[in-house]
Amino acid sequence: KRRLDQRFAHAVLHCRDPVTANSLILNGLALEHTKLAARKDKKEPVRCAKCQLWGHIAANCLALRDTCAQCGDNHRSNSCTNQSKAHCASCNSDTHASWDRDCPVADRKRRELDAKYPENALPLYSTAGNW
Q1: pLDDT tens digits for range 34-88
Q2: What are phi and psi of 59, to 5 degrees?
Q3: What number is the average pLDDT over the span 95-124?
Q4: 40 contacts 69 by C-beta, under 8 angstroms
Q5: 50 contacts 59 by C-beta, under 8 angstroms
Q6: Cα 69 from Cα 54, distance rounded (Å)
Q7: What is the model's pTM?
Q8: Kind of pairing, strands 34-36 and 29-31?
Q9: Alpha helices, DSSP H only, in the chain?
Q10: Are 61 and 48 a contacting pair, CB within 8 Å?
Q11: Inter-CA distances, 29 with 23, 38, 88, Å
Q12: What whole-number distance in Å separates Cα of residue 36 and Cα of residue 72?
């Protein structure tokens, strides 16, 4: 746990073959008497942690100032004191934050990746070919 109030965590499992991976996705995994859900690891679009825009990472960002992923103001996201305000730098909307997966720009970027990598859109791994 990172914090005492942490309720969720994520783990990445690597399987030796697609049949095993698909079985985990379909049936889940039992750990400490708890059934855990599994999902396929998909390619996700890259969003900059500095300017909150798509297609590059903070190390390559040309923005002069940080943009908060929550409120959109010019400060680092981890120092935001205005958690009740939401602003998305990608679509310039005040209805959600930049990190929101329901952002229409984020959705478009995910669809673009799915078109580029068709296997990305499939719920299971292909069992044909090399693993």
Answers
A1: 999 999 999 999 999 999 999 999 999 999 999 999 999 999 999 999 999 999 9
A2: -60, -25
A3: 96
A4: no
A5: no
A6: 12
A7: 0.78
A8: antiparallel
A9: 18-27, 104-116
A10: yes
A11: 9, 7, 36
A12: 35
